[in-house]
Amino acid sequence: MVAQRTLSPLWLLVLATTQFAAPLSKIWAEEPLGVSQRAASELAFSGVHDSARGKRSFSSLGSKQASLEQEPQHPLRPLLIEARQALEYIEQEVHDYTCNLVKRERIAGELLPQETLFAKVLHGNDKLGEEASSFDCIYLRYDSPATLSGREVLFKRGGEPHELLVRNGGQRLAFLTLELDPTCALAMRGTRYPVTEFGIKRLVERMIRLGEKELEHAECEVRIDEQATLDGRHYRCIEVLHPQRRDYFVYHIARIYIDQELQLPVRFEAYDWPNEPGAEPPVLEEYSYRNIQLNVGLSPEDFQRDHTDYGFSRR
Question: Fewest CB atoms less than 10 Å from the CB: which of 97, 171, 199, 255?
């Protein structure tokens, strides 16, 4: 039996994301900066089967990193390799999931009220057949605050021209259903990211893009708490600090909480630089994934406008 290995800190790279966007097609074709083809090959994804839990985990980069013959490197450089391994793991092993999300965001300088919602996510996967292989599906239902309660969102990547379906919810015109471009001003009102960026998989893709950009700058400090606890669960908490405000950094402090059982990032926090020395850093964004259920068997039928559990108006 192969001993289970713990997840090395691949999620440190998550901390280098939230706002940068770049074409996805460019990410995977490029060799990691400063790593030779031979070294990258040595660090390639290796799944280790855990017979007790029936899933794969990531092998540690530890000794392999030490063997790389190169100059002192940016702390995010080896983690870019790990993040790509993580993305491959998600693409191969996490086909769908449901969860509750608690989020708080600052928009145009104003910290908005906390929002809670329920989500279903189906990743595009060839195993599901041609109908589902080319797109992701997302369903969201808002529970709070009262101004959003009952709002529903349905999105299919690669679907119809009007990809985003929104039932207004809230206290006025609750049953109004709109077909929108996901990135139009109305769809983006009150949120930092479009629905196209929702979910763990998209978060990892964003962190890779911004992580590569941050390799140009070495001003960061890293702190790790291996025994963090939150709501009775155990986490690895990784904090990245950018001491000085720079135009090329998008946050002052960021923290990511890795669930020790799921081996997935389940909470992310980002803070801006304080306006005065000694003041508390203002919150930019907080996302906390709870009650995550992986691979529950969702199918394209769970993302239809006329689903009996949904309140979208009929055409």
Answer: 171
Is residue 104 a contact partner of residue 283, using CB atoms and an 8 Å limit? yes
How confident is the prediction along the chain (315 residues), in pLDDT tens digits per residue?
434 444 444 444 444 443 333 333 333 333 344 444 444 433 333 333 333 344 444 334 444 444 445 556 777 777 777 778 778 888 889 999 999 999 999 999 999 999 999 999 999 755 444 443 346 899 999 999 999 999 999 998 765 555 799 998 877 777 889 999 999 999 999 999 999 889 888 887 877 887 787 788 888 887 889 999 988 899 988 888 889 999 989 899 988 888 888 888 888 899 999 999 889 999 999 999 999 999 999 999 999 999 999 999 876
Let me know the angle formed at the C-alpha of 90 by 85 and 92, rounded to the nearest 5 degrees. Answer: 95
In a domain, 106, yes or no: yes
Domain contains 243: no
112-121 b/e with 16+ CB inside 10 Å = b?
A: eeebbbebbb
The identity of residue 246, as a single letter, is: R
Q: How far apart are CA 305 and CA 125, in angstroms?
A: 21
Residue 108 lies in a domain: yes
Concatenated DSSP letters of 114-174? PEEEEEEEE---GGG-HHHHT--EEEEEEEESTTTTT-EEEEETT-SSS-EEEE--SSSST
Range of the domain at 138: 96-198+296-303
Phi, psi dihedral angles at 42 (to 5 degrees)? -65, -30
Cβ atoms within 10 Å of 313's Cβ, excluding its own:
11
Please name every residue paired with 239 in a beta bridge, in sequence order, or none if there are none: 223, 255
The amino acid that residue 131 corresponds to is: E
CA-nearest of 63, 50, 54, 51 to 8 is 63
Q: Cα-flanking dihedrals φ and ψ of residue 133, to 5°?
A: -75, -20
- Alpha-carbon distance of 6 to 275, in angstroms, equals 40
pTM: 0.73
Number of structural domains (the chain) is 1
